[in-house]
Design goal:
By secondary structure, the chain is an alpha+beta fold. Helices cover 33% and strands 20% of the residues. The strands form six sheets. The protein has a six-stranded mixed sheet, with helices on both faces. Strands 7-10-11 form a three-stranded antiparallel sheet. Helix 3 packs parallel to helix 4 (110-119) and helix 6 (141-162) packs across helix 7. The longest helix is centred in the middle third of the chain and has 22 residues, at 141-162. The chain is elongated, with a radius of gyration of 23 Å.
């Protein structure tokens, strides 16, 4: 794996050098992890002309699921109360003879930026922009393997919940149980706060669980994800509580399912991101639900949730192979509830079987 991280850093160094900058300072935690493997909280990565340096406020953690930093990166551990790691790294860059430093301005606070400028006035600061985030878009097979395992864990947790008695239990209690099951099955933890929505709450994107209890006849929508070795996946499903769904529930579910299938089938290398969104959106739009639709149909996943690319009406760019994305259309009807269906998939060419579905829990409308 050390070779993988070294190659990532080499690609970033080529980008920085091509822009005429001597060194780069990476401060965004997910970007540091991408380039140097696991690192203590608050660590920053300095890429100079010579060796790469991981500046840490303390020694690496010994937590098994975190792992350790890439062995080919030299550790520079600050003394107790040694100050800001980014500021210390800038000082090191100056001492090494760098005359310019590319920084992640989108991540640094104004005060931190000022501190960098004051401690190393001889350094010309430039903006690294989203260079590392762009490197992260296309995943290697090791990253996809972590996502695949995370998806299996999420599927297991959801499947076990569906076998239990649900009526009378609160949204909050079900969400906590799901998160416990994720950890029991080997996840680092939940990828994001688990959403369980019942009755009139169902289908609402990002719903925070309440003390509302599950009732007969409810729609029950669940959205959860597992983090495995830092990589985050997502799954969302909607069910009906009771023996037989109402006609309007069947109709709405079938419509959202058709939209989700259209989005999934549009995933291919070279497909425009906005076209994937359009494929799913037009199914719901043509049925009169334009006002009830979320702002995007899906997004990239990886070390963070909602990475690039975005599958939205105004999205720019096209999909590449080996890019994991969610496809998650939904409709929420105020006062009645709604449906969300959410999968994590990896874009693959048709010759390789088309999009790889990572989350495999059934999308059949189950009556629980």
């Amino acid at each position: 794996m050390s070779e993988v991280y070294a190659n990532r850093r080499s690609r970033l160094r080529d980008h920085v050098n091509a822009a005429g900058t001597a060194a780069a300072l990476v401060t965004r935690p997910a970007n540091v992890r991408y380039l140097a493997a696991a690192a203590p909280q608050g660590s920053v990565l300095l890429l100079g002309g010579g060796e790469d340096l991981l500046v840490c406020a303390g020694p690496p953690d010994e937590r098994p699921y975190e792992g350790r930093p890439d062995e080919s990166v030299r550790l520079h551990v600050l003394p107790v109360n040694g100050g800001d790691t980014a500021v210390a790294a800038a000082g090191v860059a100056l001492a090494q003879g760098a005359d310019s430093l590319a920084i992640e301005e989108h991540h640094l606070t104004v005060s931190r930026h000022r501190a960098l400028a004051s401690v190393a006035p001889g350094l010309r600061l430039t903006d690294l922009g989203g260079a590392v985030e762009q490197l992260r878009v296309v995943k290697d097979e090791e990253e996809i393997s972590c996502l695949r395992i995370g998806a299996e864990i999420a599927d297991q947790a959801l499947g076990e919940l569906l076998e239990s008695i649900l009526v009378g239990r609160t949204e909050r209690h079900l969400a906590l149980e799901l998160e416990r099951r994720l950890v029991d099955h080997g996840a680092d933890g939940p990828a994001f706060p688990t959403s369980v929505a019942t009755g009139p709450h169902a289908g609402r994107r990002g719903h925070r669980p309440t003390d509302r209890r599950v009732e007969e006849g409810d729609f029950l929508s669940v959205c959860l994800g597992a983090t495995y070795r830092g990589y985050r996946c997502e799954i969302g499903r909607t069910f009906v509580i009771g023996t037989s769904p109402a006609d309007w529930q069947i109709e709405l579910y079938d419509l959202v399912f058709a939209a989700q299938r259209a989005g999934r089938e549009s995933l291919a290398p070279g497909a425009a991101c906005r076209d994937v969104d359009r494929a799913a959106r037009q199914v719901l739009d043509s049925a009169g639900y334009a006002e009830a639709l979320p702002p995007l149909t899906g997004h990239g996943v990886g070390l963070e949730m909602e990475e690039d690319p975005q599958l939205a009406p105004s999205a720019m760019g096209k999909l590449d192979a080996c890019v994991p994305v969610t496809v998650e259309p939904g409709v929420h009807l105020p006062g009645r509830g709604g449906v969300r269906i959410d999968d994590t998939l990896v874009v693959r060419p048709e010759a390789d079987g088309g999009p790889e579905l990572l989350t495999i829990t059934t999308k059949e409308l189950l009556a629980l």
